[in-house]
Write a structure and sequence with these properties.
By secondary structure, the chain is α/β, with parallel strands linked by helices. It is built from 15 helices and 19 strands.
């Protein structure tokens, strides 16, 4: 029997699903993070997970984005052979219309992050289209669609290799995961694809991330094939690396490892790994001709109630009176609460500033003794000062760091994840500091922002230079003025503790 599915129903279902996942984490993810939070022994990593859980509940209550990076939309579409779609648009155009409506929804505006002409003008499309869409034609009379919104920071850490048939998948994964750093915002999941061809392995890895977190159930029943054996082995061995939440060192780096495989050529062993970050966002729906397939809101009882307390080791910092002498006292791992005026700027703003400095032009903003926050905020709605405004990956600014510190008088930076050797050297040489805000806690961070205005480069949109006024914004000292990085010392310390057997990661 042929099922007729209306164009408007498909568009409405895509729109609803994308709005839904922008503010609701999957329950399995919340349960897994809470379990990891309860057993975590590293106070810094435990606090990072507390912020993720608090942020998640706030987003569920306020219907605002979990992360300021609301992702690139990926859709996996299974079209039944006994389906007829009633409408005048292509299926691809219908899905993209759903994306467009979801991201332009006035009640919960989502950040448009998609740039056309990626190696040229890199012009924002303005509505987060087009999506990346994968199709299958399958038996049946329904259309089943999985949608995900994948953050750029985690996608940037994807890895691929064509191994020799005799090479070890486990050894390769354990080698590349530390190279991924913390820019993918652990704790999260690893999707691993093995076999097929190069593009098939990558697709398998992405598809694997749609599966629920169930590693503990697998351990209880035992593996039934090689893919499941790999899941268990890699889950234990990756967590034993001691990388921990946000790369600060700790017991939980991955909440689950997913493995999908596919037959391959005798000469090849394709392997891909794609991480999912702390802003895990995906859901699915089935259209059967009866109307739009809308998501069912979860119960707020699914979220644990977590509170953070400002302990005795917390420093309160007045950004409006900060001096170079004061920041010399800060140590890696120190928790700070920032108040005062804070500048913002990320990739495009840094590129423009460095180009201006090279031409001998004066910058439109005075950075002397100021801090800059690497952020591209979501547009505000209703009475918000700013929308969700979590940090972006700091390593992308590494190539600009020395010039900016030398030429502008800047003394501090705030972002997420580690800094590379060149940036650390520049920070040490100029006795500056780098502070880390928690990736995946964007709505929570935004509540510390009590004022916002654009100072320069307004044409860059969310990449413009803003001035935020903040009150008690939580950050961690990640690189101190002597060049010591907590992202280097933390995982090393916790890996040693795990290896000596005093702490278990299971």
């Amino acid at each position: 029997m042929v099922t007729v599915i209306r164009q408007d129903d498909l568009i409405a279902s895509v729109e609803d699903a994308l709005q839904f996942i922008s503010y609701y984490h999957p329950k399995d993810f919340i349960d897994a993070v809470y379990e990891a939070y309860q057993k975590e022994a590293n106070p810094a990593a435990k606090d990072a997970m507390a912020q993720i859980l608090i942020n998640s509940r706030m987003c569920a209550e306020g219907h605002r984005p979990i992360c300021q990076d609301t992702g690139i939309v990926t859709a996996f579409v299974n079209v039944g052979m006994d389906v007829r779609i009633e409408g005048d648009m292509s299926l691809e155009d219908m899905i993209n219309e759903g994306v467009r409506r979801a991201y332009k929804n006035v009640d919960n505006v989502l950040r448009a992050s998609i740039l056309a002409d990626p190696d040229g003008a890199r012009k924002n499309t303005g509505d987060n289209t087009p999506a990346v869409i994968h199709y299958k034609i399958v038996p049946g009379n329904t259309i089943d669609i999985h949608v995900a919104a994948k953050g750029g920071g985690s996608e940037a850490k994807s890895k691929f290799a064509m191994l020799n048939p005799s090479d070890s998948v486990v050894d390769w994964v354990l080698n590349v995961v530390p190279q991924m750093g913390a820019g993918w915002c652990p704790p999260g999941m690893l999707g691993i694809g093995i076999g097929g061809t190069a593009e098939k392995a990558m697709l398998l890895a992405k598809e694997a991330l749609l599966d629920p977190i169930d590693i503990h159930e697998l351990r209880e029943r035992g593996p039934s094939n090689r893919a499941e054996e790999l899941r268990l082995e890699l889950f234990d061995k990756v967590n034993a690396l001691g990388i921990g939440a946000q790369g600060l060192g700790g017991l939980t780096t991955v909440l689950d490892v997913k493995v999908k495989d596919y037959p391959t050529h005798a000469a090849n062993k394709a392997i891909a790994v794609i991480p999912n970050c702390a802003a895990t966002r995906h859901t699915h729906f089935t259209l059967d001709g009866s109307g739009p397939a809308l998501q069912t809101p979860p119960s707020l009882e699914d979220w644990p109630v977590i509170t953070r307390e400002a302990g005795a080791n917390v420093r309160r910092v007045n950004l409006d009176g900060i001096t170079r002498e004061e920041i010399q006292q800060w140590q890696p791992g120190d928790t700070l609460l920032l108040s005062g005026k804070l500048l913002t700027g990320r990739d495009a703003a840094h590129k423009r500033m460095v180009d201006m400095l090279a031409r001998g032009e004066k910058l439109p903003v005075d950075f002397t003794n100021r801090f800059i926050y690497y952020v591209g905020p979501v547009d505000p709605v209703r009475d918000e000062v700013v929308g969700p405004a979590g940090p972006t990956t700091a390593t992308r600014m590494d190539k600009f760091t020395r010039t900016v510190l030398e030429k502008t008088g800047l003394i501090g930076m705030i972002g997420k994840s580690e800094r590379g050797p060149a940036a650390i050297d520049a920070i040490r040489d100029h006795k500056a500091v780098y502070l880390m805000a928690v990736g995946g806690a964007a709505y929570l961070v935004s509540k510390a922002i009590v004022g916002s205005k654009v100072l320069a480069f307004a044409d860059l949109g969310m990449e413009a230079i803003y001035e935020f006024e903040v009150k008690d914004m939580p950050v961690t000292v990640a690189v101190d003025s002597r060049g010591e990085s907590v992202h280097q010392t933390g995982p090393r310390i916790w890996k040693a503790k795990i290896e000596e057997g005093s702490i278990t990661v299971k």
